Amino acid sequence: MHPLLNDCRRRGGRSPSRSRRLATVALPAVLLVLAAWAGDTAAQERVKAELLQLYGGVYSNACVDSDAPRLRISPDALVVQNDGQRLIGRKLRSANPFGTNAAPPQFRTALTGEATTGGTVEFIVMEDRRGLYVTVPGDGRVQALLGKSAAATRYRRCDDPAAQAVARPTPPIPAQDEPASETEKMLLDEQFKSSYLRALGPLARDRWLAQLEGPRPPTRQLRLDGNEYTVIAVCKAHACADHNTVLLYAATQATVFGKVFQAGQSRYYGDPSPALAVALDQIWATEWRRR
Question: Per-residue pLDDT averaged across 124-134, rounded?
């Protein structure tokens, strides 16, 4: 008999069916650890898929409120989203948040991902009588995004049948909030990121600019003076009219030229030529003044 079943039977007070259910829910996490020890990549992927099937989805502390924080467990990322900003962790793997201490009976699994801005994103999945919920360690990045009470908050799975009995279905998150947008992929490119931050100079102190956080249209390609550029436009969440930018990135030359508007003033960054400055003015007017 599996040790988890023995443990449930020793505790008493639970029916055999209840014990079997708990063992079944907890077993994938055990298998993932064993697969990691064995170095079996294929086994890790199989169990990872099972974990995602069991625990994947959107979690929130207020599923009926489309403006409330959202946590997402997807096949390729852990996403923390609030107030138009996101923290994304990729390269998912299992975690042991309790060290040598025994995990509480509500524990189901823990997943971590490498944050695109450095550090890690960690979700701890638990379950109580109301259903599944996620807690997140209150490190600096998470606190900045979710507030100081982040570590004490329970984020319930929004598609859980028990939650839907008392709440309306959660509106789908817009496509621009998917964790693998073209702009986010570019920020993972060290050449682009270093070129962009170098062009920004002191403006990199503004987080929304440095991380290109906020609403944005899809990227597009533009050919100017024989050079191919990627056009990126983004604005600060809830302040698009007063804080926005457009930029041109030439991958073959590793150069970035941009225009930013904030505090009622416009300025260029990356030292664009007069011709590129005119092009940036036109792109900026198209993206932020003709909408």
Answer: 88
